Amino acid sequence: MEKLQGAEDLFFACYSDDVPQNGGVCVKYKNEQIAIFNFTRRGEWYATQNMCPHKQQMALSRGMIGSSGEECEPKVACPFHKKSFSLKTGDCLTGEDYKIRIFPVIINNGKVFIEVKSIG
Ligand code: FES
User: Fold this and answer.
1) What CATH number is given to the structural domain containing 82?
2) Domain limits at 29?
């Protein structure tokens, strides 16, 4: 695992140029698929589990990202049945009792690192 100086548990996932603007890619770390989102419109990056908890589809990296509600909560909508999830908290925003895991993202020198200490 490539490390950033002074940073523990950071996984080099890809180059920032590998992730489309306002879109996502999927990378694998151990047995976990991680969806990485380059939310260019907001100037923000997010990472979540790639599996949608609704029907266990590996799909969230291909979901549509946007902002929701008065709080402008950043979200991703699963391409299958459009259930959407907060990119900040992982909470389901479409009223169901689902939750996805989120991971901190650090961009350094054109590289995307994911904090993976919670991944076994
Ligand atoms: S599998 Fe994602 S919303 Fe149904």
Assistant:
1) 2.102.10.10
2) 10-115
* C-alpha to C-alpha distance for 69 and 18, rounded to whole angstroms: 30
Neighbours of 63 (CB within 10 A): 24
* pLDDT 10s digits, 40-75: 999 999 999 999 999 999 999 999 999 998 889 999
Residue with CA nearest ligand 1 atom 4: 81
Q: Is 83 in the pocket of ligand 1 (CB under 6 A)?
A: yes
The number of C-alpha atoms within 13 Å of 61 and in the hemisphere containing its C-beta is: 16
Q: Is residue 4 part of a domain?
A: no
For ligand 1, say whether the CB of 94 is within 6 Å of any of its atoms. no
CA 84–ligand 1 middle distance (angstroms): 9
Cα 73 from Cα 35, distance rounded (Å): 18
